[in-house]
Amino acid sequence: MSDSGGFAAGLLSYETLVHAVAGATGSVTAMSVFFPLDTAKSRLQVDENRKSKSTPVILSEIAKEEGLLALYRGWFPVISSLCCSNFVYFYTFNTLKKLAASGQHKSRPGTDLLMGVISGAVNVVLTTPMWVVNTRLKLQGAKFRNEDLQQTHYKGIFDAFSQIIANDGVGTLWNGTLPSLILVLNPALQFMVYEAMKRRAGKGGKRISSAEIFLIGAVAKAIATTVTYPLQTVQAILRFGQYKGKGGALGSLSNVFALLMERIKRHGVFGLYKGLEAKLLQTVLTAALMFVVYEKITAVTFRVMGMNKKLRA
């Protein structure tokens, strides 16, 4: 089969589609369960004047000041973005895995990392506008401690897109793209560690339990999140749109470094990790549950369709 034929087969395969749908479903399920933790993380990242406290205290404050439903503010745009984002990521990642397998390349951490980086870059370019909108909707109506932060007034996802384009220009929808592109290392590291640990756990054809999948997913995400968290903070600030920095690619790079230095100057090095507790709780638990749902859906689907083969997540 030619390279183009192999690519088409990998891109349009039923197996790849199943992985993408399972990954999107798993991520939506897990995020819905742990969404309040994501709300707490976003407040700590963007609102600098909010003192860093334990996650339960932050959640209690938000519920008391803004109502219990505030913990789920922005749920729909986040879930919509996450569903699209994970569909794109899992589809691209598993297409690349299928192509690598057809080329008889042995799976190894370096290959997994490269496939994760490419998948992440494709995902960022296609879905960043949705994440810009959902960051603003999630923080709309929040009671900020920092009085310099301006409130937004969007009626929904489409109104947010319309207002951002009309007031700030189309390019604003790609705010935070540079740190996002750098942050493709997060899921890339996550999948590299996940795949390596899963291969080791399943050595010799051993069946991997749901509990093991949950633990492997949690460890993989904890490592990736801790390594890349400072850039995630910068990404959240840029997406919220309150930072007026330089334009263009070089300007974007300058903004990233300027925000990192500004954060260190105001709060010290640990200021780069403000909200990490909430982020770790949310992303680690979400990723772990997502992988369990993902593995279960793919296993059941392939079994029902009679595809009796060793599954590769």
What's the helix and strand layout?
Elements: H1 3-11, H2 14-46, H3 55-66, H4 75-102, H5 109-139, H6 157-168, H7 177-182, H8 185-201, H9 210-240, H10 248-267, H11 276-304
Question: In short, what is this structure?
Answer:
With 313 residues, the protein is mainly alpha-helical. The chain has helices at residues 3-11, 14-46, 55-66, 75-102, 109-139, 157-168, 177-182, 185-201, 210-240, 248-267, 276-304. The protein has one domain: Alpha/alpha barrel (Mitochondrial carrier fold), CATH 1.50.40.10.
What does this structure look like?
The chain has 313 residues and is an all-alpha fold. The radius of gyration is 20 Å and the shape is globular. Residues 308-313 have low confidence and may be disordered. It is built from eleven helices and no strands. The protein starts with a helix and ends in a 9-residue tail after the last helix. The relative contact order is 0.15.
Query: How far is the first residue's CA from the last residue's CA?
Result: 24 Å
CATH homology superfamily: Mitochondrial carrier domain
Basic shape: globular
Low confidence ranges: 308-313
What is the annotated CATH architecture?
A: Alpha/alpha barrel
Q: Give the overall average pLDDT.
A: 81
Q: What is the number of E strands?
A: 0
What is the highest CATH level, the class?
Answer: Mainly Alpha
Structural class: mainly alpha
**Strand portion, in percent?**
under 5%
CATH fold category name: Mitochondrial carrier fold
Structural domains: how many: 1
Q: How many H/I helices?
A: 11
